[in-house]
Each structure stands twice: as C-alpha cells, then as structure tokens.
TrEMBL record:
PROSITE patterns in alphabetical order: IMP_1, IMP_2
Keywords noted in UniProt: Hydrolase, Magnesium, Metal-binding
Catalyzed reaction equations: a myo-inositol phosphate + H2O = myo-inositol + phosphate
Names of required cofactors: Mg(2+)
GO biological process: inositol metabolic process; phosphatidylinositol phosphate biosynthetic process; signal transduction
Sequence similarity: Belongs to the inositol monophosphatase superfamily.
Matches recorded under Pfam families: Inositol_P (PF00459)
InterPro entries: IMPase, Inositol_monoP_metal-BS, Inositol_monophosphatase-like, Inositol_monophosphatase_CS
MF annotations from Gene Ontology: inositol monophosphate 1-phosphatase activity; metal ion binding
Protein name: Inositol-1-monophosphatase
Organism, scientific name: Streptomyces antnestii
Keyword tRNA-binding: no
Amino acid sequence: MTDLKAEPLKAELLEVALEAAARAGSFLRDGRPADLGVAATKTSAVDVVTEMDIASEKLITGFLAERRPNDGVLGEEGASTTGSSGVTWVIDPIDGTVNYLYGRPDWSVSIAARLGDETLVGVVAAPLRGETYRAVLGEGAYVNDRPARVRVAPPFEQALVGTGFGYLAARRARQADVVRELVPHVRDIRRCGSAAIDLCDVALGRLDAYYERGLNPWDLAAGDLIAREAGALTGGRPGEVPSGELTIAAAPGLFEQLQTRLEELGAWHD
Ligand code: IPD
Ligand code: CA
C-alpha cells in the first residue's frame, strides 16, 4: 500500500507550497496598484476583496493545477475542487487584505497541504517582512532557513497576547468585551491584521500567545502547523482542535491558562 505520508510526498508538497507562495508573494509585492480599490465585499461592508486577492488565488491554483493536477483545493476567494489524490490545498491568497489595501506591511500568503484532516505542510510568506515561515509535520518549523521556536511561557500577567476581530459588528462587540476582560491581566494585546502571521509570531516568540474566534480554515491551516512544529500548543475550547469557534496558540504552560480563561469569558460564542 502506498504510504501517502511518506517523506517524498511531504518533500514534494513543501517544495510546491514554497514555490506557489513565493510566486504569489512577489506578484502581490511588486504588482500592487497605487490606486488599489475594493473589488467586492463579503460578510459586511468592511470585509473586502481586492482584484489582487482574486488574481493571487488564480495564480496559486493555476500553478497547483500544473504541478499537482489530482489534488483538491479550497481557497478563500472561491476555489473549491475535490481532487482524487487525497491531498487538499488550503489557500489564503492574501491574509490581511485590509493591511494590503492600506499599504501596511503585515499581510501574507498562506498555503497548507492536508491529507484528510491532517495538515502535512504549511507555508506562510510575508514578503514585506522578507520572511517565509514553513513547517512539515514532525519535522520542525523554520523562518527562512532558521529554526523557529516558541518563547518560554511567561507568567500569565506578563504575556503578550495577539488577537483579531471578525467583520460582523455583533461579533466584534463580543470580542471587544473579551479583550476588555483580558487586557488588565496580561502584559499587552496586539492586533496585527493577519491571523496567519499571528500564528507564526507565536512560533517565532514574537508573541507569547494568540487567540481568535471566527477564523476560516484558510486563515489557520498553515499557521497552526507552523506554531505546533515550533513547540506551541494549539486548540480551541478545552479538548477541541482549533476551529472557527475558537483558535488558541501558546507555549505549553501559558496555553492551558489562556484556554481556561477564554472558556470562562465565553470567547467561543457571539
Ligand atoms: C482576516 C485576518 C485578520 C483576522 C480576520 C480574518 P483576511 O483575514 O486574518 O487578522 O482578524 O478574522 O478574516 O480577510 O484578511 O483574509
Ligand atoms: Ca484570511
């Protein structure tokens, strides 16, 4: 029987993911129109799509179709095919679209390769940071070619915690309530605007922890693997894996405390 998780498969998926992310990252960095505008809105008037989100997804799916024609794809801008190989690519062509629209640097291209429910490979390219983060299941996480490692967990009150907000007003109001309860009890809060980068920042020790409600699979698939391979624990509500309900990533020791606190605060519901 073919071992679908065999090393040559993982190595090939990594190489393809790195190349796809590099191509899309260069295209987005070098091709951003000075007068970039909003092409469409999604869940609310502030949930925007630019022509570059759509073009980036086309570039990535076109490249994957050439290199891995039998794989499935799931992309934020609508790409959705099943494939026959068992591998599915989960793609965010620009994570941090609002930052990209405003010319802010924290946006990324996030590409993960999944086999069933398991993510085998994750790549997050952040061109304006000059960094690409990557991980292969069981093989560690890297920033460019340096190993990535989480920071040793500080006491809860010294934790630097990243988070984010959804696009719907009612959800944001709840998320603000949760932050209001947390902020007096931690070092500080950060909101960078790209969930994929937040997860990688935990992997790199640039954040002690990150949590957010309302993420989609393409926001978190690659970053979750990168955080775990760098030594973080990730999850959702107690006993759950990261999901749209709640995603948490932090170093062991801090993770459990944050998960308990978020459960008490009801961070998993609107
Ligand atoms: C968003 C970003 C943001 C997070 C939102 C996501 P998008 O993705 O990751 O940081 O707070 O929940 O929807 O819309 O820029 O691809
Ligand atoms: Ca996204």
